[in-house]
From TrEMBL:
InterPro entries: NUDIX_hydrolase-like_dom_sf, Nudix_hydrolase6-like, NUDIX_hydrolase_dom, Pre-Nudix. Keywords: Hydrolase, Metal-binding. The keyword Nucleotide-binding does not apply. This is Mutt domain protein. It comes from Heracleum sosnowskyi. It holds the Pfam family NUDIX. Gene3D superfamilies: 3.40.630.30, Nucleoside Triphosphate Pyrophosphohydrolase.
Length: 349
């Protein structure tokens, strides 16, 4: 049998866990549990701007990289007529897996189902391992077909859903879906030793309580600039949005790690010391009921703070950092050979 193919083989495997490209990341386990690989998750758009990518493609990238031909011609013998079998278009990753090109998926459900079955059989024969399939929002009708063939949900973001398929027998060694969200709290204290606090407009447990301005890192910036928001940038932005106060970052004084919070994900909350550059408060009436400058004694006298050991300790640490003029971690921009990117290392100098 003559087989016409255009495919490459990769000798590496998933036994050392999947190492992400610099354009996406997960909280990692196993041998990569290090400072350089513990990065928070960020989403990716279906179409990326014309930027220089890493040396190998990631499952989140929708561009075209070393595509394999979509049609394989199988001829049982030289005299019989040829017949074409459609395979899904994609490329090999560095771990003997396959990344399916979302832009070339058949629009017809029947054509997709046929090509998917043929492709899975072909990849099994070649000894492939993990299969990544990114299905765009306009291709949503293809999701049930892939699930019926054994694909699993990995994660979803606005514009796409990511599915995976583990071919070998035994436990799946593909990395798990993103598991953390990142929050920030801004501790702003002025020359009068007054702390900037807010009352949130929500029916939560802290409703009616004066508290530090808090929020989440804004991942939407990634879609526009290909860069995620830094922790200290997020703190400055949240304070400005909620209170109208301009600030500059001084140091990170503490962080809290809580398990199974929103959407059963882990929650990282970073407390940042900020220096006020203005004093006039203008609240965001959509989120904030009120905001003001308050003495630390008045803040701590609230019954809510009296009962919450975490908030009391955070306030004590922040006041100590303010009085000692250098207690926590400052941000230093450095480049790592691991991903080739300029990033911030938070440390005490």
């Amino acid at each position: 049998m003559a087989v016409k193919m255009n495919a490459s083989h990769c000798s590496s495997n998933y036994s050392h866990r999947f190492v992400p490209s610099p354009n996406f990341s997960w909280s990692m386990e196993g041998s990569y549990r290090s400072l350089w690989s513990r990065i928070s998750v960020q989403p990716f758009p279906s179409k990326l701007p014309n930027v220089k990518l890493a040396n190998f493609p990631s499952p989140f990238q929708g561009g075209k990289h070393n595509h394999k031909k979509g049609v394989q011609v199988l001829s049982p013998n030289i005299n019989s007529p040829s017949f074409a079998v459609e395979y899904l278009d994609g490329w090999d990753d560095d771990y003997n897996g396959i990344i399916i090109d979302p832009e070339s998926l058949p629009s017809s459900a029947n054509a997709f189902a046929s090509a998917l079955k043929a492709s899975l059989s072909n990849w099994k024969l070649k000894g492939k391992k993990g299969v990544w399939m990114k299905i765009l929002q306009e291709q949503v009708d293809l999701v049930p077909i892939a699930i019926q063939e054994g694909f699993q949900y990995h994660h979803a973001e606005p514009g796409y859903v990511m599915l995976t398929y583990w071919i070998p027998t035994g436990p799946c060694l593909l990395p798990a879906s993103p598991s953390h969200q990142i929050g920030i709290a801004g501790f702003v204290i002025n020359e009068k030793q007054e702390i900037l606090v807010v009352k949130e407009k929500c029916p939560c447990t802290c409703s009616g309580v004066w508290k530090l301005p808090t929020g989440y890192i804004n991942k939407c910036l990634l879609l526009l600039t290909m860069q995620s928001e830094e922790i200290f940038d997020g703190a400055i932005r949240e304070v400005k949005e909620e209170t109208g106060i301009d600030t500059t970052f001084l140091e990170m004084v503490a962080f809290r790690h809580a398990q199974l919070v929103a959407f059963e994900k882990s929650d990282l909350m970073f407390v940042c010391m900020l220096k006020p550059l203005s004093s006039e408060i203008t609240i965001d009436e959509k989120e904030i009921e009120d905001a003001k400058w308050i003495k630390v004694e008045e803040l701590m006298e609230q019954p809510y703070y009296q009962e919450d050991e975490m908030l009391k300790r955070v306030t004590e640490i922040c006041m100590a950092a303010h009085q000692n003029r250098g207690y926590g971690f400052t941000a230093h921009q450095l480049t790592s050979i691991f991903d080739g990117q300029l990033s911030n290392l938070y440390c005490r100098t």
